[in-house]
Amino acid sequence: MIKRKMFAGGEKLLFAKASILRKQLTFAEDLLWTYLRTKPLGYKFRRQHVYGIYILDFYCHALQLAIEVDGSIHDVEEVRHADGDRQRQLENWGLQILRFRNEEVRLKLQEVQEAIENFILKHSPGKVKDTTI
User: Fold this and answer.
1) Are the CB atoms for 113 and 106 separated by under 8 Å?
2) Which residue, of 22, 67, 77, 93, is most buried by count of CB atoms within 10 Å of its CB?
3) What share of the chain has pLDDT > 70, as a percent?
4) What is the rounded distance in angstroms from the CA atom of residue 73 to the CA atom of residue 93?
5) What pTM does this model have?
6) Domain range for 119
7) How far apart are CA 98 and CA 66, in angstroms?
């Protein structure tokens, strides 16, 4: 598996769309971004990050990790099917994906944060920074 570059050849139009999306985060995305922008366990995340032909809700290049926050539109059969195709393509490119529902982020934020931190601890390519005092 080849580690791809930060943006994996994303097209200019996607960067413009990502810029707009950064200004229009959903409530759940904004809530999760408040946490991810603190660099949990020392890892930097980006929001609405262009990767190849996709825009990822959140992305950590050091971990090759995408975090997706799914609203109710993802319950529609054709959207679920497209999500599956998208996820398989991203995984083929070497990314790992964590998916959370809007409701999980809104109602169980602590559990979502713990799931992300557990993923980081398990998959960290280097030593995780000690965040205790």
Assistant:
1) no
2) 67
3) 80
4) 25
5) 0.79
6) 26-123
7) 6
